[in-house]
Amino acid sequence: MHRLLILLAIVLAGLSGTGPASGAQDWVVVKADGRDYLTMDNIAEFYGLSAVKRNDREASATSGVRNIRTTAGSPDFFINNLKFILSYPAIERDGKVCISRLDLVKLVEPVMRPSRIKNAEPIDTVVLDAGHGGHDSGAMSIYGPERAFALDVVMRAKALLQATGLKVVLTRGDDTFISLEDRTRIANQYKRGIFIAVHFNAGGYGTGVESYTLAPRGVPSMMADGPAVSDFNDCRGNARDAENIALATATHAALVVKTRMFDRGLKRARFVVIRDITIPGVLIEGGFQTNPYDAKLIATAGYRQLLAQAILQAVQNYRRAVGNEQQLPTVVHTDESGKREPEKTAKRETPAPVKPSPGVKPAPVAPPSGN
After folding, report:
1. How far apart are CA 328 and CA 351, in angstroms?
2. pLDDT bracket for residue 74 (50, 70, 90)
3. CA distances from residue 118 to 17, 153, 241, 320, 331 in whole angstroms, order as listed
């Protein structure tokens, strides 16, 4: 029996150039709860995918190995089988499943077409941030503290990255406590850098890996109790929203592939280390110290090496995604022995304009800007 694995850390649509692929795109805007939503049919058409298929409340569309899907009432959104957490749950209106305009602009578009991100800096430096340190042990397991495991992963990743010729900067290279403010200060010294923070999770018997990128302005942090006035404050990191989600996508996909752990999704938050930096950043949680299975894995050198390899893969894929070289998404099937079958690449297709529904005024923008 074959198991489907995501191979690439970047989820590209395979489109090139600038602007819509074919003429102006008519976006059918649905108003709900004071926000603008776009139909999955509209989105699938724009990105050259098949007509949307429905399975009860789920809506999906594919083209070759590319696919998107979501379920009305759920915040889960899948691009090429990688799980993202929407800023607002999908809704259903007039028989159509929709996602918010903000999620299309801030999540789907930069993930599907990262090469179109404007003003992305070339990357020559990776800032690695081992969480906690010194008197701050982080999450504990019977095998040891988070601070030690995070530092070990960072040191392993440093060696791999340096072997490729990249400059690597550590916010801490030993068991020392470094304040959050000092971590961001270090990161902000490198204009052509990216920032990757390494942590391990805690909380009951939770399991799996997850990644965090900075929540866009106006979007509640997924680590908060709900919407707050502070959600509308300007954060330094929001200037890199598009690069943030592209880097987080590359990182999270690599984590899921390398570790084969449960995919908890790519989420949004306002942690200080990703909020106050001026370069693209992501924070990863490599498993649960409080889960017996996860904790035993985290304590092994082999698993920590997989995390380091995932970081290397993420950096390489991100650099390709926002640079001149384009790469199409690939899905690999493996048998029980782990032997790979031949890889497949996505066919490039040109989306045709979507006709507006009767009585609904279209917004002829591509993609529509979000607020």
Report:
1. 17
2. very high
3. 12, 32, 11, 15, 28
Token readout for 363 is: 């917004």
Q: Which of 165, 359, 330 is nearest to 253 (CA)?
A: 330
Placement of tokens 């569309």 in the chain:
61
DSSP string, 113-168: -GGG-TTPPP--EEEEEE--BTTB--SEETTEEHHHHHHHHHHHHHHHHHTTT-EE
Closest CA to 179 of 134, 233, 238: 134
Amino acid at position 269, single letter: A
Q: By the 8 A CB rule, do 367 and 110 touch?
A: no
Residue 244's alpha-carbon distances to 44, 58, 118, 188, 223, in angstroms, are: 23, 28, 13, 15, 18
Do the bridges between strand 58-63 and strand 53-55 make them parallel or antiparallel, or are there none, so unpaired?
A: antiparallel
What is the DSSP code (8-state) at residue 282?
E
Q: What is the pLDDT of residues 167-178, one digit of tens each?
A: 999 999 999 999
C-alpha 53/C-alpha 240 separation (Å) is 34
Q: Is the pLDDT of residue 334 over 60?
A: no
- Structure tokens, 305: 């090496």
Give pLDDT, residue 219: 85
| Domains of the chain and CATH, by start | 3-113+332-363 (3.30.457.10), 125-322 (3.40.630.40)
CB atoms closer than 10 angstroms to residue 34: 5
Give me Rg for the CA atoms of the chain. Answer: 20
Contacts of 108 (CB under 8 A, 6+ apart): 43, 68, 77, 79, 99, 367
- pTM beyond cutoff 0.90: no
Cβ partners under 8 Å of residue 76, min gap 6: 70, 83, 84, 85, 86, 265
Largest distance between two CA atoms of the chain:
64
